Amino acid sequence: MCYHASFNFPAFVLVFGSEDWPRFQSLYHKLTKMNDTRIKKTLSASIHELAKILGPKYTELDLLPCMERFLKDKVMDIKLGALKNLHVFLNEITLEKREIFIKYIIQSFEEANK
User: Fold this and answer.
1) Per-position b or e across 6-40, b if 16+ CB within 10 A of its CB
2) Looking at the predicted structure, is the pLDDT value of residue 113 above 80?
3) How many Å apart are CA 107 and CA 93, to the nearest integer?
4) How far is it, in rounded angstroms, from Cα 71 to Cα 68?
5) Distance, CA of 13 to CA of 23 (rounded, Å)
6) Across the chain, what does the average pLDDT equal?
7) What is the pLDDT of residues 55-73, one digit of tens each?
8) pLDDT of residue 7
9) How far apart (Å, rounded) are the C-alpha atoms in residues 1 and 79?
10) What are phi and psi of 34, to 5 degrees?
11) Is 101 helix (H, G, I), strand (E, B) or coil?
């Protein structure tokens, strides 16, 4: 059940709109912290879509910490899901906040070249 919720999460938020994000926020955070690789992989691959729907305010407040967790994850599929569309996610946050992601890009590049 949680996997299906994670898979369809951006669609729920799109239908209800960003103004209803507070209704879904705690559920999203619970899903991102679950110890299920399938759920986290799905959420990491779609976080950029959620950022586009929510806009800068909620992306910086609520999604930025989740994105960082995905990029720090030990499971490569979760990390790659987040990295694949990081550029889309970064469009929704301020320039100052974007700087923190440079280290994740460099780290991922170095890991890939080992």
Assistant:
1) beebbebbeeeeeeebeebbeebeebbeeeeeebb
2) no
3) 21
4) 5
5) 10
6) 92
7) 999 999 999 999 999 999 9
8) 87
9) 23
10) -70, 150
11) helix
d(CA 73, CA 54): 24
Residue pair 53/10 in contact by the 8 Å Cβ criterion: yes
Q: Which long-range contacts (CB under 8 A, 24 or more apart) does 56-62 make?
A: 56/92, 56/93, 56/94, 58/18, 58/21, 58/25, 59/89, 59/92, 59/93, 60/92, 60/93, 60/94, 60/97, 62/21, 62/25, 62/28, 62/29
Looking up tokens 């923190």 gives: 100
DSSP state letter for 99: G
**91 membership: H or E segment, kind and range:** none
Confidence (pTM)? 0.91
Cα–Cα distance for residue pair 36/51, rounded to 1 Å: 22
